[in-house]
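Today's session is about reading a structure prediction critically. Students often jump straight to the picture, but the first step is always the sequence itself: look for stretches that repeat, for charged clusters, for runs of hydrophobic residues. Only then move on to the predicted structure, which in these notes is written as discrete structure tokens rather than atom positions. Here is the chain we will use throughout the hour.
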Amino acid sequence: TGACVTARGFACAGELIRRGGIWRGEELADAYALGEAIRGSFVEPRAGFGFWLAAPSRQPMSFDSDLWRAQSPAPIDLAMAAGNGGQRLYIAPSRALVVVQLTHTDTPGAPWSDAQFLSLLWADL
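Below is the predicted structure for this chain, in token form.
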């Protein structure tokens, strides 16, 4: 909370994680350390370090999103960072995809849906 970053900056951070620390042919960060951010634990398979994960879990999500409740064709390696005001960073390494969303507006009768938003992307991939 409280970070100020452009969409491009947010996407660059996601791309660095997706590429395992490699940026423009140089290793800027340890691949194992970055991989831990999008890897869950035995205790909570759906929580990485700052990311919600698409891993199976024994308990319901504590985060308010329909992404993993819905029947969505999202890849099993999908990771999502969620910020205040609807900011999202989605990383799907298996699809070579990073998506940034800075805000959304809930309209009456049509609340925001992470699952619906991403299903538009998965349909073309």
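Discussion point for the tutorial: The beta strands are 22-23, 26-27, 52-53, 79-82, 88-92, 97-101.
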